Amino acid sequence: MASAQGSRPRLRTKIDRSSPLPFYVQLRSALEQHIERGGWRPGDRIPGEEELCRMFEVSRTVVRQALNEMAYAGLLARQKGRGTFVAQPKLSSRGLVQSLDGFYKDMADRGLRVVNQVLEQAMLPAEPRVARYLQLEAMAPVIKIVRLRLIEGEPIALVTAFLPYDLCRELIGADLTQQSLYAFLEDTCGLTVASGRRRLEAVGANDQEAKLLKVAAGSPLVLLESVSYLSDGTPLEYFKGSFRSRFEVEIVGLAGETGEAEWPA
What we know:
By secondary structure, the chain is an alpha+beta fold. 24% of the residues lie in helices and 28% in strands.
């Protein structure tokens, strides 16, 4: 269990045995309130099942049901061999799935501090997969940018973007640590993303992702792949990113839908 820090509130462990509410509901409520009051913070390990049984004087069945429901709701995260931890806050992002604003602007507009650690920024020949997505000749020059993205100091995503060098040569020397890639493309290169195709997939963290995102190897991540286009249909960016956070997606009506486009094979 994480040790007490500063003036964090104490966990209230009283179960009202005369209440009509089931014990597991009361236990869950007590644990949730403790998190809401700041008694446990994202990343803190909570007491184990046996200790919670002792603290609340309830059975392991009660404890397991309460923890299972909290894990299902995304409030807790279990790590095999390590214990149960308070989950990172859910990020609600329209920018990733249905908006062309991009992740940086979406998070910044919500008042969150976004920082990019640029791990690689170089020109290189396009590998076949990238050339196909960007509709380039084999070995055509592209700019590759690898960034570790942090929200409020916490690593959230490891992202890699490829862009045609001939379209945005200025990008090779750009400082992207605290600015949006899309904003730079529009303001400096005169290039505006007009449309895109995005695909989500659940994957397990590889060793590099686990180290940079501070998760255990094999932990579930959300893999997002995207191809963005200019208004004339020219591909501008192929992007793939592994995200640690869970996502809450706002669903909008289909009145403005223009039809299905094929994801590159």
